[in-house]
Recover the amino acids of this structure.
C-alpha cells in the first residue's frame, strides 16, 4: 500500500474513538454561528488531548492513556442512506487529487524509471542487484513517501460514516453534552429541556437512531458565555447554580467570542478549523434554518440527511501530505460523478459551492485565549466527566459478568482458560450455519462482554479488550451468531496487534475468517471492507506486502467500482513496495484500478492510474498494451477537457509501429482526428500544431531547381539533363563536377575562380549541401518529400503545400557593400497546392511540391502544411463503391479532417575533420532547403534530331542538334565539354566555308567527296590541313569544344540547328557519353556566372572491322636516293557477326595523315578496284610511303582511293575525328610513358636519342569504308573510318585498344637502388635503322669462263644516313661466310680492290660506293657479306648495323 501520514497505531486509534453527542439550544447555536461554526465544529480542532490520562482497570491497576482523541458530533436521528454514503465517498475521492507543484524524483527499478516525489533520491540499480539496498535506504528516509491522500480521505470518511449497528458498540454514544447560552432568560430550564430531549431520543421507541452505549448516558452541562456581549456576573451566578445542581464534575462554563466581529483587519489569528472543515465540507449537509432540534449531527463526518440539501463545498483537502511516488502533472479539472445513481451533482454547481465557501473566515470572534479555553474545556470534560464515567461503567459491567450465570461465564473464571493454554476446537466457517440474523437482547451477558471489550478498546486497554473479545468470540461461535462472532474476531485481531510489547503475533487468520463471514454469510460488504482496510494496514506495517495485496484484491467485486478501484490501486503499491519490487504487477493492477475508477466516474483518478502504469509499459516493446493505455489516456483526457494531453496520447498510438489490426487503427485515427479538431476549434487563430502522420523521412528530402524535362517529340530527343526521376550516382556526379571545372578553367584562362561553386540542380543526402544553393527567379523550386504511412488504413492529405519564409533582397543593387532589402508581399512566392494526395496502407509515397519565386531574395522552406483525413473503407456510400472513386482520383471523405503541419528538419553530415570534431558529436549545416533566389539567367534547351542509339564501331553518322533559348535574356559563350571528344564533332572552321558537294548530297554521305576518274590508276591525292582549324591548337583542351553560334549569341526565344557528326567508339558494347553544355548570360551577375546543361548519350556499338598496320623500311632507294621510302602493310579483317544485318564491307579509301610521311600508291592493287570483305574475311593491303616535303605544323593528307569518289580526308568530319582520336591516342600513350619511364627519360643522352629517332615514324592511317545493310527491305549504306597510329618501324599497331595482359605474380624483391646509372645503349632494332644500305647489281650475269676464268661484276653499294646528324661509317668487305650450309647454297666469291672504306655521311645524305665482285665459277651467290659499322661523328662508341643481313642479295652467274 501507499505510505500514510499516520502510523498504523495512530490510524486505528483515530478510527475508534469515544463518541460524544452535542445537543445545543438555539441561542447557544447562534453564539457559535458568529464564527461561522457549529458547536461541534467549534470544538473539533481541540478534541485531541495533549497530555497523558490515567484510569484504573477492574483489577485496580493504573492504566495510562496516551494521545486520546474524542469526537463531538451533533445528533442526527436518521440513519444514513446507502446512496448518500456512496455520494459522500465519491465526492471525497473526487476532490482529493495529487498536490500541485511537488518535486518529482526518479527511482530506477531494473529497466524501469518511476517518479517519486519530495526529494531528489536517484538510484540506478540493476534488477536483481542493489534494488534492496536502495529501497531500504529510501524507506528509512523520512523524506520518502508515496502518499495517496484520496485513499486516506476515503478511508477516514468511510470509517466515520459507517452506521451504528447492534452487534458492536464502538460507534455508540458514550456521553452527551447539553449546551445552553448564558444569555438565555432561564438557562437552567433550558438545560432541563435539553436533558428531557436527550432522554426521549435515547429511550423512546420513536427514535431507533442514534445508538447509545449504556442506558445511563453521561450528561455534561455546558454553559456558553459570549464575552463580548453577555454579562459575566450573570454567567458566573448561573454556573454556580449549575455546580450545585449537577456537581463540579458534570458542568462547565465556556467563555467564547472575546472580541467583536468588527475587529481590525490587520490582526492575524490562526484558523485551525480549515483543514477539518475542508475535509468535511462535502459531507456537511446541515441546514440551520429549521431550528436547533431539526438537525442533530453524528460523529466527525456528519451523516448525510436524505433530503440532499446543498451546502458549502470546499475544493479538495488541505494537503499536508507527502505526494504520490509516481507523481505526475497536476490534473486541474474536476469530475464529480460517482459510483451509484443517487445525489448526482454537476461540476458547475460543485465549483459554485466551492467559491462560496472558500472566502468564509472561521473563528472571527475568537482570540487565542478563547482557543485555550476551548482546549481546556475538552480536557476538563475528558478528565472529570468522560473517563470516570467509562471507568465506572467498565467496573459495573465486570461486576455484572461475575455475578451472572455462575462462574463459567464470569470474567475471572474465563481468565483461567485464557491463560491456561487449553483450546477448544473451533468449527470452520463452512461448517457453521447461517445464523447471521440471530439477535441478542440488550442485557444478554454475551453483549455485556462485548460492550466491556469495546469500552476497554476505546480507552486503549488492549490487553483486557483482547480477553473480552476472545471470550465473546467463543460464546458467539457456540451460539453460531456469525455476525457477532465476526465482529469479535475482527476486534480481537486488532487488539492483539495493538497490545504493547506484542505478547502474541497478529492473528491474521482471525481477520480472514471475519472478512469471509461478513462477505459470504452476512452479505455485509461494508463491514468486510472495514476489516480489509484495517488488516491491510497492519500487514503493510509488518512488511507483509504480498499478503496485503492478496487481501485487497480479494475484496474487489462488481458491486462497487470505487471501492474496487481504490483497493486495486493500494494493491499495486504493495507490489512496488515489496522486497523485490514487482513493477509489472504494479502496472497491471494500476491499469485495473484505472478501469474501475473510470467506471466509477472518477475520470481524473483513472487518468492518473493509466499515466503511472504507462511509465512501466513504455518503450518495452509491449505495443498492444501501450496502445490500450494511450487510447484510454486520450479518452479520459478528452473527457476532462485536457485536450493537449489527449492529442499527445493519441499521437503516441499513431507514431509507434502499431501491431493493431486495420479496423482498430482506423478507430484510433478517427478518435485522434476528432480530439484534434476540438483542440483547433478552441484556438482557430493559433499556430498550426505538428501532425504525427504520415511519417516524413527528412533525410530523403530532395530539392530540384528548374523546370521539368520535356519529353521527346517525334524525332526530337530532349537532353536528359537531370531530374528527380534519376537515381543519384556518386561517380557520375563527380564526373559532371570535373567536366564543369574543366570548362570553367578554359573560360577563365586555365584558372578556376576562388568563388566557383559547382552547379547542383538536384540536392539530396549525398550532395554537398554546406553552401546555400542558387535558384533563378521565375524558375520553379521543386521539393520532393518522402511520406510513409505506418498504418494499415489509407491516409488522405488534402490541400498539401509547402510552408516557407522569404526575405526579399536585391542582389544587383549594392549600397555600401550591403544588399538592399525589399518589402515583402504576398505575390513574392507562388506555391503549388496538391488538392488530394492518397497514401495507401503501409505505403511510402513521394510528393513533389513546387514554389515559384517571383523576386530575388533568400528563401527558407520550413515544412509542409496539409489537411489530414481518412477515406471511407469498403462501406457503400449512397450506392457508390469507393474503389471506383479511388481510381478516378476523387476520394470520399469520412467527414473528419484536420489542418496541421510538419517541419522539415534535416540534420547535416557529421563533422570529422579536426580533433575536437572527432572526439565530440558535431554536425555540419544542411542548407538544401535554404536557396538564394538570384537574378534572371538565360535558360538553354537542347534537342537531338536523328540521334542514333546503335552504331558500328568506327561508323560515322550525321545528326542535328537544336539549341533553344527559352528564357527572356540572351545567352552567349556556348560550349560543350565531354570526356570523349573523339565521339562527336560540330565540324572545323573550314567546314562551314566549304559547301557540300552534289555527289555527297545525292548519296547522303556524311563526308565531303569528289568524283575521281575510274579508269586511270592515279597516285594518292594530296591535301593539307592544320589542327588549329579543328580546335586542337597548341595549349588547348580537346575536351572543350566551342559551338559555332551565329554572332556567338542566342537571343531570347531563338533556336538554331547545327549538324553534328558522330563516330562510333572502337570498342563494342554500351557506352555512356556525357555532354556538358556551358553557357553564360551577356549581363554579368554577382551570384551566378554561368549555367550548364547535362546530357548523357547511350550508344550501343557492334563490331565492324579490325585494322592492323605495320611499317618497314624499303631496301630499294629509288631515283638514286631521292628521298626516303617505306612500305606500309595494312591488314583489314571483317569481324562483324552480321547482327546488325551487315552483308559486307567495302574499303573505299585509305588515307594517311602525317607531318613527315605520306602514302604514295598502293603496291598490290587489284584491277577491279573494289575491296569487299564478307564476314570473317581478311584483306591485306600494301602501300608505299615516302617522306614528304617539310610543311611546318600542317598535316599532309594523302588519299588512296579504291572507288569512284574521293573522300577529302582533310575536311570535316574525317579530319575532325582523326585529330580527336590522335589527341586521345597521344594522351593515352603519354600517360603510359609517364607510368613506365618516369624519371629515366631524363637520363637519355643525345646520341641515343638521335639513334632512337631513326626508328620513329609519325604516320597515321585512316581506313574509310562503306557497309551495306538491309533493314526493313531497304538497303542502307553506312560509312565509317578507323584510325591506326604508327609510331615505330616494325612495330604492329591496331585500330582498337589492346587489352593488356596482367603480369604474372612474382615474388616481391627489395633492393637498394644503385646511385650510378649505367649509360643507356640503343637496341639492335634502333641501330639497324641508323644507316640504310642497298646493293645495286644485275640479277643475273652471263660470262664465258672458257674465255676468261675470272668473272668481274660491278656492284654499287648505296648508303643512306637516316638520322639528323653526321655519321661516320666503316664498310668492311673481309667478312666471309663460315657456315657450311651457306657455302653449299650460295658458294663463295671475293671482293676485289679496297677491303675497308671509311666514310662520313651528312644528315639524310645518300652515298654511292662502287665495288667489284670476282667469281670463278657459275652459280648463285649472296652478295650481302659486307659489314657496316657506324657511329655518330661526335661520339666514340661504334655500332654495327645489321640490316643488310636481313635479306640475301642473290646474283646468278651463267656461263655462255
Amino acid at each position: 500500500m501507499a505510505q500514510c501520514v499516520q502510523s498504523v497505531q495512530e490510524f486505528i486509534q483515530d478510527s475508534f474513538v469515544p463518541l460524544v453527542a452535542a445537543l445545543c439550544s438555539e441561542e447557544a447555536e447562534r453564539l457559535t454561528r458568529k464564527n461561522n461554526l457549529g458547536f461541534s465544529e467549534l470544538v473539533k480542532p481541540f478534541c485531541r488531548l495533549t497530555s497523558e490520562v490515567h484510569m484504573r482497570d477492574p483489577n485496580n491497576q493504573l492504566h495510562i492513556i496516551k494521545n486520546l482523541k474524542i469526537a463531538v458530533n451533533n445528533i442526527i436521528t436518521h440513519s444514513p442512506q446507502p446512496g448518500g454514503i456512496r455520494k459522500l465517498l465519491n465526492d471525497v475521492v473526487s476532490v482529493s487529487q495529487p498536490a500541485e507543484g511537488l518535486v518529482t524524483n526518479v527511482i530506477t527499478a531494473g529497466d524501469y524509471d518511476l517518479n517519486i516525489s519530495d526529494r531528489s533520491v536517484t538510484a540506478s540499480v540493476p534488477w536483481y542487484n542493489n534494488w534492496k539496498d536502495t529501497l531500504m535506504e529510501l524507506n528509512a528516509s523520512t523524506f520518502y513517501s508515496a502518499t495517496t491522500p484520496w485513499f486516506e480521505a476515503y478511508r477516514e470518511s468511510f470509517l466515520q460514516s459507517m452506521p451504528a449497528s447492534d452487534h458492536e458498540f464502538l460507534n455508540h454514544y458514550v456521553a452527551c453534552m447539553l449546551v445552553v447560552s448564558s444569555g438565555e432568560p432561564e438557562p437552567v430550564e433550558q438545560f432541563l429541556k435539553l436533558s428531557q430531549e436527550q432522554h426521549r431520543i435515547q429511550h423512546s421507541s420513536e427514535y431507533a437512531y442514534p445508538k447509545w452505549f449504556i442506558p445511563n448516558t453521561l450528561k455534561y452541562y455546558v454553559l456558553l458565555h459570549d464575552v463580548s456581549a453577555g454579562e459575566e456576573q450573570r454567567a458566573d451566578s448561573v454556573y454556580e447554580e449549575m455546580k450545585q445542581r449537577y456537581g463540579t464534575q458534570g458542568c462547565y462554563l465556556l467563555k467564547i467570542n472575546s472580541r467583536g466581529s468588527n475587529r481590525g483587519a490587520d490582526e492575524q489569528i490562526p484558523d485551525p478549523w480549515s483543514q477539518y472543515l475542508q475535509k468535511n465540507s462535502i459531507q456537511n449537509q446541515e441546514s440551520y434554518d429549521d431550528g436547533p432540534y431539526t438537525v442533530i449531527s453524528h460523529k466527525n463526518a456528519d451523516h448525510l440527511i436524505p433530503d440532499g440539501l446543498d451546502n458549502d463545498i470546499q475544493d479538495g483537502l488541505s494537503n499536508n501530505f507527502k505526494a504520490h511516488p509516481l507523481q505526475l502533472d497536476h490534473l486541474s479539472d474536476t469530475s464529480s460523478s460517482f459510483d451509484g445513481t443517487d445525489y448526482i451533482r454537476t461540476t458547475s454547481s460543485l465549483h459554485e459551492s466551492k467559491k462560496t465557501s472558500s472566502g468564509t473566515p472561521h473563528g472571527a470572534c475568537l482570540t487565542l485565549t478563547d482557543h485555550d479555553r476551548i482546549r481546556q474545556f475538552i480536557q476538563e470534560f475528558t478528565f472529570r466527566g468522560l473517563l470516570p464515567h467509562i471507568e465506572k461503567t467498565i467496573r459495573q459491567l465486570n461486576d455484572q459478568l461475575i455475578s451472572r450465570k455462575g462462574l463459567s461465564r464470569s470474567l475471572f473464571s474465563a481468565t483461567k482458560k485464557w491463560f491456561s493454554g487449553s483450546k477448544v476446537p473451533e468449527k470452520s466457517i463452512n461448517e457453521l450455519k447461517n445464523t447471521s440474523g440471530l439477535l441478542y437482547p440488550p442485557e444478554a451477558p454475551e453483549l455485556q462482554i462485548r460492550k466491556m471489550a469495546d469500552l476497554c478498546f476505546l480507552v486503549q486497554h488492549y490487553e483486557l479488550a483482547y480477553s473480552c473479545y476472545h471470550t465473546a468470540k467463543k460464546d458467539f461461535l457456540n451460539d453460531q451468531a456469525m455476525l457477532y462472532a465476526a465482529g469479535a474476531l475482527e476486534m480481537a485481531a486488532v487488539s492483539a496487534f495493538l497490545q504493547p510489547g506484542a505478547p502474541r503475533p497478529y492473528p491474521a487468520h482471525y481477520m480472514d475468517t471475519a472478512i469471509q463471514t461478513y462477505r459470504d454469510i452476512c452479505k455485509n460488504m461494508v463491514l468486510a471492507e472495514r476489516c480489509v482496510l484495517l488488516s491491510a494496514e497492519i500487514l503493510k506495517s509488518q512488511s507483509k506486502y504480498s499478503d496485503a495485496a492478496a487481501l485487497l484484491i480479494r475484496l474487489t467485486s462488481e458491486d462497487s467500482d470505487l471501492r474496487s478501484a481504490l483497493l486495486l490501486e493500494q494493491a499495486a503499491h504493495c507490489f512496488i513496495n515489496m522486497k523485490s519490487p514487482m513493477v509489472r504487477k504494479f502496472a497491471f493492477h494500476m491499469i485495473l484500478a484505472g478501469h474501475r475508477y473510470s467506471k466509477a466516474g472518477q475520470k481524473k483518478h483513472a487518468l492518473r492510474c493509466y499515466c503511472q502504469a504507462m511509465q512501466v509499459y513504455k518503450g518495452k516493446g509491449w505495443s498492444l498494451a501501450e496502445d490500450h493505455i494511450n487510447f484510454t489516456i486520450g479518452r479520459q483526457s478528452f473527457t476532462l477537457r485536457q485536450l493537449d494531453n489527449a492529442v499527445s496520447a493519441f499521437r503516441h498510438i499513431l507514431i509507434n509501429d502499431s501491431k493493431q489490426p486495420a479496423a482498430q487503427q482506423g478507430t484510433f485515427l478517427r478518435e485522434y482526428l476528432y480530439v484534434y479538431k476540438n483542440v483547433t476549434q478552441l484556438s482557430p487563430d493559433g499556430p498550426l500544431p505538428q501532425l504525427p502522420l504520415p511519417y516524413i523521412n527528412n533525410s530523403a528530402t530532395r530539392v530540384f531547381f528548374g523546370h521539368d524535362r520535356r519529353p521527346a517529340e517525334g524525332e526530337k530527343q530532349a537532353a536528359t539533363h537531370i531530374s528527380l526521376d534519376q537515381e543519384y550516382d556518386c561517380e557520375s556526379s563527380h564526373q559532371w563536377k570535373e567536366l564543369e571545372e574543366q570548362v570553367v578553367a578554359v573560360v577563365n584562362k586555365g584558372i578556376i575562380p576562388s568563388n566557383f561553386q559547382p552547379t547542383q540542380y538536384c540536392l539530396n543526402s549525398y550532395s554537398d549541401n554546406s553552401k546555400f544553393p542558387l535558384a533563378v527567379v521565375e524558375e520553379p523550386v521543386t521539393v520532393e518529400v518522402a511520406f510513409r504511412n505506418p498504418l494499415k488504413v489509407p491516409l488522405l492529405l488534402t490541400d498539401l503545400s509547402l510552408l516557407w519564409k522569404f526575405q526579399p533582397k536585391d542582389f544587383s543593387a549594392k549600397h555600401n557593400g550591403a544588399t538592399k532589402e525589399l518589402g515583402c508581399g504576398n505575390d513574392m512566392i507562388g506555391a503549388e497546392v496538391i488538392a488530394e494526395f492518397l497514401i495507401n496502407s503501409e505505403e511510402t509515397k513521394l510528393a513533389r511540391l513546387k514554389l515559384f519565386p517571383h523576386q530575388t531574395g533568400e528563401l527558407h522552406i520550413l515544412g509542409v502544411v496539409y489537411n489530414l483525413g481518412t477515406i471511407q473503407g469498403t462501406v457503400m456510400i449512397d450506392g457508390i463503391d469507393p474503389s471506383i472513386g479511388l481510381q478516378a482520383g476523387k476520394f470520399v471523405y469520412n467527414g473528419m479532417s484536420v489542418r496541421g503541419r510538419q517541419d522539415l528538419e534535416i540534420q547535416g553530415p557529421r563533422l570529422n575533420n579536426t580533433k575536437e570534431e572527432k572526439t565530440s558529436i558535431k554536425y555540419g549545416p544542411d542548407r538544401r532547403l535554404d536557396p538564394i533566389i538570384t537574378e534572371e539567367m538565360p535558360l538553354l534547351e537542347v534537342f537531338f534530331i536523328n540521334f542514333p542509339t546503335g552504331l558500328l564501331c568506327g561508323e560515322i553518322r550525321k545528326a542535328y542538334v537544336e539549341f533553344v533559348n527559352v528564357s527572356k535574356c540572351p545567352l552567349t559563350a556556348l560550349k560543350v565539354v565531354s570526356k570523349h571528344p573523339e565521339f562527336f564533332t560540330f565540324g572545323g572552321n573550314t567546314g562551314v566555308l566549304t559547301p557540300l558537294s552534289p555527289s555527297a548530297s545525292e548519296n547522303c554521305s556524311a563526308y565531303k567527296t569528289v568524283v575521281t576518274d575510274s579508269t586511270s590508276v592515279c597516285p594518292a591525292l594530296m591535301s593539307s590541313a592544320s589542327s588549329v582549324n579543328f580546335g586542337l591548337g597548341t595549349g588547348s583542351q580537346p575536351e572543350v569544344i566551342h559551338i559555332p553560334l551565329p554572332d556567338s549569341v542566342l537571343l531570347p526565344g531563338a533556336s538554331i540547328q547545327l549538324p553534328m557528326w558522330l563516330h562510333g567508339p572502337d570498342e563494342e558494347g554500351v557506352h555512356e557519353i556525357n555532354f556538358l553544355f556551358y553557357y553564360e548570360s551577356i549581363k554579368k551577375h554577382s551570384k551566378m556566372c554561368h549555367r550548364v546543361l547535362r546530357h548523357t548519350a547511350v550508344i550501343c556499338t557492334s563490331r565492324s572491322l579490325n585494322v592492323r598496320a605495320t611499317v618497314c623500311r624499303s631496301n630499294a632507294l629509288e631515283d638514286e636516293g631521292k628521298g626516303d621510302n617505306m612500305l606500309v602493310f595494312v591488314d583489314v579483317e571483317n569481324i562483324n557477326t552480321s547482327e546488325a544485318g551487315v552483308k559486307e564491307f567495302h574499303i573505299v579509301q585509305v588515307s594517311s595523315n602525317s607531318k613527315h610521311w605520306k602514302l604514295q600508291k598502293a603496291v598490290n592493287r587489284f584491277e577491279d578496284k573494289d575491296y569487299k570483305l564478307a564476314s570473317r574475311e581478311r584483306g591485306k593491303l600494301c602501300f608505299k610511303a615516302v617522306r614528304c616535303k617539310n610543311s611546318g605544323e600542317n598535316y599532309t593528307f594523302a588519299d588512296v582511293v579504291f572507288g569512284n569518289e574521293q573522300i577529302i580526308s582533310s575536311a570535316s568530319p574525317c579530319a575532325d575525328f582523326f585529330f580527336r582520336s590522335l589527341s586521345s591516342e597521344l594522351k593515352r600513350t603519354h600517360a603510359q610513358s609517364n607510368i613506365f619511364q618516369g624519371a629515366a627519360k631524363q637520363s637519355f643522352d643525345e646520341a641515343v636519342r638521335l639513334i632512337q629517332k631513326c626508328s620513329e615514324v609519325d604516320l597515321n592511317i585512316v581506313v574509310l569504308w562503306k557497309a551495306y545493310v538491309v533493314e526493313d527491305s531497304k538497303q542502307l549504306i553506312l560509312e565509317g573510318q578507323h584510325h591506326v597510329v604508327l609510331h615505330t618501324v616494325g612495330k604492329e599497331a591496331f585500330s582498337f585498344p589492346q587489352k593488356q595482359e596482367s603480369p604474372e605474380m612474382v615474388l616481391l624483391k627489395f633492393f637498394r637502388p644503385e646511385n650510378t646509372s649505367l649509360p643507356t645503349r640503343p637496341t639492335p632494332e634502333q641501330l639497324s635503322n641508323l644507316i640504310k644500305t642497298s646493293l645495286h647489281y644485275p640479277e643475273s650475269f652471263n660470262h664465258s669462263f672458257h674465255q676468261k676464268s675470272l668473272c668481274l661484276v660491278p656492284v654499287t653499294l648505296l648508303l643512306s644516313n637516316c638520322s639528323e646528324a653526321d655519321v661516320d661509317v666503316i664498310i668492311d668487305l673481309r667478312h666471309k661466310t663460315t657456315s657450311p650450309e651457306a657455302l653449299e647454297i650460295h658458294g663463295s666469291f671475293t671482293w676485289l680492290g679496297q677491303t675497308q672504306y671509311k666514310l662520313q655521311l651528312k644528315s639524310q645524305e645518300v652515298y654511292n660506293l662502287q665495288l667489284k665482285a670476282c667469281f670463278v665459277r657459275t652459280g648463285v651467290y649472296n652478295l650481302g657479306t659486307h659489314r657496316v659499322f657506324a657511329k655518330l661523328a661526335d661520339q666514340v662508341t661504334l655500332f654495327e648495323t645489321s640490316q643488310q643481313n636481313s635479306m640475301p642479295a642473290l646474283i646468278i652467274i651463267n656461263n655462255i
